[in-house]
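Quick one:
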Amino acid sequence: MPNSLDAYIPELWANESVAILTENMVISNLIHRDFSNDVAKFGDIVHTRKPAEFTAVRKVNSDNVTVQDASATDIQVPLNQHFHTSFEIKDGEETKSFKQLTDEYLSPAVLSIAQAIDKVCLGQVHEYFTNAEGLIGGIVDTNVKNYIINARKRMNINKVPEMGRNLIFTPNTEAEALKLDTFTEADKVGDAGTALREASLGRKFQFNMFMCQNAPSLTGVEANASNPLVDLGAGYGIGATVIHVDTAGSALEVGQWIKIGSEGIPHLITALGTLVTEDIDVTISPPLRAAVADDAVVTVGGQGAINLAAGYAAGWGKEIVVDGFTGQIPVGTSVKLATAGTPNVLLSNVYSVISTTETTGNTTGITLNKPLLTAVADDDAVFLGLDGEYNFAFHRNAFAMVSRPLAPAPRGLALSSVASANGVGVRVTITYSGTGQGVLVTVDLLMGLEVLDTALAVPMIG
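Output:
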């Protein structure tokens, strides 16, 4: 080890790491968190609870009270997301102060973990499409207020508690909102000018509003070349779930994402009828949010396939190689994986891309926001979502982030310490690398994520 050990006290690094982490997370600070100091390992199952719901009961003087079950629903959350960032501080830099090392090394390292966690949590937006409101490509400054009101309406219909509602904007949506005096003028906002100075959106329409740079703001998502048409003279009204389509030689598949005319939100194909000539009945989820006319164009999301002879086992959480796509897949894109003959159409089996590697030919490596729920085989279909601004309105109890501390490294092998704050635990391990001739620092975190209530979140799509 370097001669000066003052800058390598693991307790200092761990405490500073958890402080930096919680300061830089956005959505992760707004959701239900379950944390205890019990040491855990990757794959452990944690039991968290969905809060109980009660119903007020009327009584008269002669009645006994009605006793309701106060037990909350047990939710099992696997600790299956282990994030780490490692860096090496070379010999010769041991004279730097802890503050200097934090600025140069630790802050960027922990920031990368904070961004990864936010991408994982923001990817949950795709699991709530049954509640979606909006119009792909439709948000501009003159209508952003109406989009927010419609998201609020959907939450009110779903009886989401009024306290604890949050709304995450993509950078593009926030830019449109900030063009309105409603969001910036101090006399209208009532925040003594904070919104104008900091370009924050504050609390409006019962939402605490935030912008997150990691919220899915998607352009250039590959689309299928096919363009089927709605085939019904009278068109279809709000609430329709089965659409008759003229495929005109195009091949539709269960698991694909589609957009229908100007109706505007993504729909998942959950079933297909029998193909008659070129016509077929398409069952969609969620139902239509607006009417569509005869001959409305059906835009189909891009399609590729798994590219690994051995396939990937359930629980695989690292990079997945896919092919059949002509360009890079944008981070934040929704992904549906469909095993031939047995496609899983549950929205809980929708993933989101949190990172990609460079495309080689038409082969791309993608990492998803959660480990595989089911195994996939070589050449299984990979369906991509659609372009759009995926803003996310949610109550804090919509889903839970569960975090447990990892065990410190055994004494004598490394300097190691764990610190926790605000519902997350971070471990820092410091060793000397003879090969690298420097101090190797690893910051890591163990977590799991699980939906608590599918009624408590609304994608606001633009």
